[in-house]
Prior knowledge:
The structure is a homodimer. By secondary structure, chain A is α/β, with parallel strands linked by helices.
Amino acid sequence: MSIGTRYNEYAAGTPTERLSVGVAARLSRYLQVLTQASKMGRDRISSQEIAEFTNVNATQIRRDLSGFGKFGKRGVGYDVSLLIGEIRKILRTQGQYNIALFGAGRLGQAVASSAVFADHGFTVAAVFDVDPARIGEPIGSTRVSPYGELAPLVEEHSITIAVLAVPALAAQRVADDVVACGIRIMFNYSEALIQAPADVTVHTSNPAAELLHALYFSLA
Amino acid sequence: MSIGTRYNEYAAGTPTERLSVGVAARLSRYLQVLTQASKMGRDRISSQEIAEFTNVNATQIRRDLSGFGKFGKRGVGYDVSLLIGEIRKILRTQGQYNIALFGAGRLGQAVASSAVFADHGFTVAAVFDVDPARIGEPIGSTRVSPYGELAPLVEEHSITIAVLAVPALAAQRVADDVVACGIRIMFNYSEALIQAPADVTVHTSNPAAELLHALYFSLA
DNA sequence: TAGATTGTTAATCGATTAACAATC
DNA sequence: TAGATTGTTAATCGATTAACAATC
């Protein structure tokens, strides 16, 4: 009966089924490439080109997309802005999402002033730091808030995502506080291994692992 | 005959076959988790714990490792430092590798002073910036060099990896120059889509795509 | 028309999962 | 001994690849 209820909810809200983890991950990456291609003034793009930038097979890309409609033109490719719209509809991530950034040091400042999040509708709505000297400093389009105001500001700005740009030793404590505020998605730029409840998603930036992997294949 | 020659080369140098892309990528991620666990003072770790931090299935982890030897103890788990050594042997990435960092701005400074690369034997041997005001500035354990000295310094320091912390608009030009110097591995922190020859590996940091992906699954 | 690229199928390959004996 | 976790097998699922007709 509870399973039946869930199916009914899906049927009422959206006719499509839940995407698999793999498909959702790949669609997100296509969206990133398309967004950047659009900024570079590209109108059209082929599955082959998307493949080069995502390292996903071109046939796989065409099949991922064709599962939701015929978005391309044979002999021509895909219209970039049309495809951006379609993927956003599929991912149901068309809205604006507010981010809380932790750490107003060099990394935090770089993140706050970068376009990488803004391009996808993510707004850095609050920045926190434990250093009293930094409180009130302008950063991106906001100012540094005291860490003690975390809970009320998360509530006030409807923040759903945390980005951790703090030292590794502080990361777990911040993660715990963030979870306590009801945030369920974190992006961790520190090298710390974050412990979090099962319903919380933690993505950890891992450039060193990617270099090791690349290095293995480049060695004779 | 050429195929036979290749097999002979492998047989002479190393008895093991080439790892698949998937295995090498996963082993690199296990190594990152183990390295961090070691820094946190952990002596032992179970496949289940590695699974939680890598999002790789615990059975998969055990099978990846058991293909190369019996590194674990039943009922106990894996010895962290022993396993670090074994994976380094498998990946043949035990040496020191020199990095050229491009961009001495906030992001570049954050990267240069972070432990994330140093923990895996990557040394930032040279930092380049086009801003004359920054030349000679200390950054990490080196100083900012003029961009014009790229080729001789890459040669002098045996640099094999480039890390791009430059604005998106400058990224492609830097990538072209880097490739011209013979570097074949790049890590790109900008949101730019980098074009490079097929034998060059470019990894682009993509926090926004990972957030979009996480967001999809966290939405009701 | 000729060339290019999508949409789609079928075959192969690798990853995931469940299960469990072995053993620390 | 009892509990825990590895090493390993088998079954299922999803990704990759090649191929090609459809069609812009």
